[in-house]
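Example complex used in Figure S2.
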Amino acid sequence: MTISSIAQHLPALLIAVPLLTAFLTPLVGGVNRSLRVLWVFLGIAATSAIGLALAWKVFTYGTVIYVFGAASVTQTLPPDSGGIPIRIIFEVDAFSALMIVIASLSAFAITIYSLMSESECSGQDGFYALLFLLVVGIMGMVATGDLFNFFVFLEISSLAGAALVAYRVDKGVAVEAGLKYALLSTLGALCVLIAIGLLFAQYNVLNIAALASRLQFTTLDKIALALLVVPLAMKCGAVPMHFWTPDTYTTAPSSITALLVVSSQASLYALFRILFSLYGHLIHFSYATFGWFVIILGVLSMFVGVTMAIPQKDVKRLMAYHAVSQTGYMLLGVGVGLAVLGDRTALNAYGLTAMAGGIFHIINHAMYKGLLFLTAGAVFYRVGTRNLNKLGGLGHTMPWTMVFFMIGALAIAGIPPFNGFASKLLIYESVFRFSPFLSIIAMVVSILTLASFVKVFHSIFMGPRREEFAAAREVPPAMMLGMGLLALVVVLFGLIPQTIIDGLIMPCVTALVDRGAYMASILGGH
Amino acid sequence: MNLAWTLHTGFGAWNPAIWLAAFAVAVVVTLLIRAWGRKDYRKGTNQTKPFISGNEEPSHSGGHIPASNLYWGFLESLKAYYERLVPLHTGVPTDYLIWLLGVMAVVMVIGLVI
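Predicted assembly (640 residues):
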């Protein structure tokens, strides 16, 4: 297989490599432990390299189309198909590519961390098989251009995620959390499946671009829209459907929690894809209504998330509520863009900037929230408790973990010069033009976020050494490397925000707004 | 001014390099002020002990303020808000489903009306 051949089949390899790694892990693990570690490392390194290479290709040359099972991987409309894209097609545009970058970076750092944090636990073959299946689900959700195929990957990620949440039984608490996640995910996926059925029954196509070109916004289309949007909002943790988030994120192993954040963001991606690329022009008469729906979800998520975080005593539960809160910023930014989508003047004046802020916050949040969950896992790894009332003085013995935590905490609070500040600044300034009140809420939520993480920092790392943690010491190098990689991205994105905006974020905004280009990639004629 | 690293928000600009430079200057000024302090300061002597009305300084062990003691005033002032919000987080999966279905019903009605 030549390099050009590999480059041509990157979208297929993005799924095939982690899938193969997942199913062969139990086999390799049966030989010996060291071989499994090597296998898992090579698997995630290859997956991430493929993901980054594909993203580079998209950002350099434009949207990548991949048709499975066709004589030519770019032949979306076979001559005898009647103009219908009948095969499974991956359509990787800039927004998909950004999500692939997020998944690749996060999965790599998280897996390296897991190789050490889970090294003393049993059932590692199943653990890594499920972890790779979760990666498959996330990659597939953000790469596919087919609605039914999206449902399949949504199910893969949900089931793998639920199994991983429940994997370390923890006296039944983790199993209960896994059950909740599975129950809500299954019901949500069922709604998505019904919506797909409603659309397929009317238009005979499953490809998103083809569907977008045929939708008439009938009553059934409106019902399908609700059946698609609400479960995806639930999956990304939007208030008032966020209740599963703290339960699930708290009990899952910390590395898995960090990956579940990325999984939630894949749902957020799908939510935006449905609203912009699929239904886009059909809701032109009511952009403001749909925009305000997303904005209200965002504001509720921001405020309820942060205020629920402040009284928490379990560090991971506190961070889980902050994940809800930060999702609110993304919804707010993109929601403002959606609300003014029909007003070209407002869109150019501040709508595109708001969307850029919201989308930039997706990748920033994945990095710093992943980092924060890994630091919480590092603390638990050494002292065996997540209870903030029992922790204290660990700054003396775990200085690197403390530094990584500080980077993540300052980033999530929007303190310069870290990445969270850059995306929040874009959101504050652009949303202020739309509604000063919303912008002020966003700033107040940031202040409360800082207050919350000051409490966590004080509770875990400050104070005199405690006798019960006398044996605590810094975590092993592999865990530090995982945290360090994410911390590096947090710092780097904060130092060169305009480069990231120009290179990664604005192409995503364009991809979302230019619905015609998304359709033309499959159907031609743009 | 179009400096490298400058983020243009459309309404203003932000340059982390300038911020870092300002931060570095602040650190240097702080260190300079500190350097002008008393030179007869000796660690481990009575100079370093806090004056607590002549009483001995209590042991540091057990002196850590736990998380629950922080932000008491904030939580107390928002007691009415928390008394309504916290009970909604029941931990019961069927309650979670009701919220999901409720929101979906509302969205569906709005979608059908417009």
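The beta strands of chain A are 64-67, 89-92. Residues 298 and 331 of chain A are 5 Å apart (CA to CA).
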